[in-house]
Amino acid sequence: MKLFILTVMNGMTLAALYFLVASGFTLVFGLMRNVNLAHGSLYLLGAYVGFNVADWTGSWFLGVAAGFLGMAVVGAILQVVIFRRMQGQDLRQTLVTIGLSIVMADLMLAVWGGNTYQFDPPSWLSGPVQLMTAPVVKYPLYRLVLLASAIVIGVGLWLLLNKTRIGMMIRAGVDDRGMLAASGVNVQRIFTITFALGAGLAGFAGVVGGTALSIAPGEDTRYLLASLVVVIVGGMGSVTGAAIGATLIGLAEQLGLVYSPTYGVVYTFLIMVVVLAFRPQGIMGKAA
Questions:
Q1: Residue 50 has what pLDDT?
Q2: pLDDT above 90 covers what percent of the chain?
Q3: Where is average pLDDT lowest: 50-59, 94-103, 173-182, 209-218?
Q4: Distance separating alpha carbons of residues 134 and 131, to the nearest angstrom
Q5: Strand partners, 129
Q6: Pfam families, alphabetically (predicted)?
Q7: Where are the beta strands (DSSP E) in the chain?
Q8: Quick check: 246 and 19 in contact, CB under 8 A?
Q9: N or C: which end of the chain has fewer CB within 10 A?
Q10: Each residue of 245-286: pLDDT tens digit?
Q11: What are phi and psi of 138, to 5 degrees?
Q12: For the segment 139-161, what is each residue's pLDDT rounded down to a tens digit?
């Protein structure tokens, strides 16, 4: 029972990290229909930038801020320079961002090498806490804070998209860009802000994920693939769907790793196949 509880908690905290990355991806891919396959590279680059800033300043919080803000700026530049010129051209966006991710991976390898890095969280976030379960289980405090942060960010994103004026404009711009522009709204500015927010969330996830796990070459591909699966399972453009998809994938990955390690990876894609077979638009996605 203790092993099962630890495995479920590991699955939930991994799901929280997947959600943080996928929430940015669902903003860009699901809502704006921009095929950004360099999203995983933004995760890894944000982690590296945050690590360097935290190392130079001695402040983990400045590292988190640098990861978020740095990738938000990069995301805004990508939207203005690349995606604005290729709007509606999915194949071009796919090919260009694949090439961009390869270039970024090589540049990061040249700058930071093939070493594995890990953040040290603040001392008050370190150490275990006792969970009120039977039997009593000790679990790292930082991972619980990561889970709570993902919940807060998820609720904030849902409120932003569904209960605010800017969220209304984002959804209207996706449905009918011409009509929104005719009403006097600067559609390109709205889309740039949205893309910057999605990229910033990837950078934020890179720092908090690098603190919980580690930073190493290849993590960009892993989290890009995880984001794709989460968005496909949960439904494109749905923050709630991303949360559900991340929970299913995180739990399946950890439970499979513990109880059937040979087939652990299969369960993740089995979930995706079942969802695509019975609900092609995803669990919370809308029919086309």
A1: 92
A2: 32
A3: 173-182
A4: 9
A5: 139
A6: BPD_transp_2
A7: 128-131, 137-140
A8: yes
A9: C
A10: 999 999 998 998 888 887 777 888 889 899 988 888 888 877
A11: -90, 135
A12: 888 899 999 999 999 999 889 88
Range of the domain at 173: 16-219
The secondary structure of residue 127, as a DSSP letter, is: S
Which residue do the tokens 């999915």 mark? 90
**Smallest Cα–Cα separation from 220: which of 73, 124, 104, 97?**
104
> Taking Cα atoms as reference points, which of 153, 218, 114 lies closest to residue 17?
153
pLDDT tops 80 at residue 177: no
How many whole angstroms separate alpha carbon 111 and alpha carbon 272? 36
Considering only the C-alpha atoms of the chain, give the largest distance between any 2 of them, rounded to a whole number of Å.
62
Hey, is 103 helix, strand or coil? Answer: helix
Residue 243 within any structural domain of the chain:
no
107 close to 49: Cβ distance less than 8 angstroms:
no
Phi, psi values for residue 140, rounded to 5°? -60, 130
Lowest-pLDDT range, 45-54, 165-174, 213-222?
165-174
| Cβ neighbours for 263, distance < 8 A, ≥ 6 positions apart | 256
Mean pLDDT of 93-110: 90
227 is a domain residue: no
Give residue for tokens 């995706």: 272
Examine residue 267 and state whether it is found in any structural domain, yes or no.
no
Cβ atoms of residues 5 and 255 within 8 Å:
no
Task: Give 258: exposed, middle or buried? Use CB within 10 Å, 0-12, 13-18, 19+.
Answer: middle
Residue 44 inside a domain? The answer is yes
| Domain count of the fold of the chain | 1
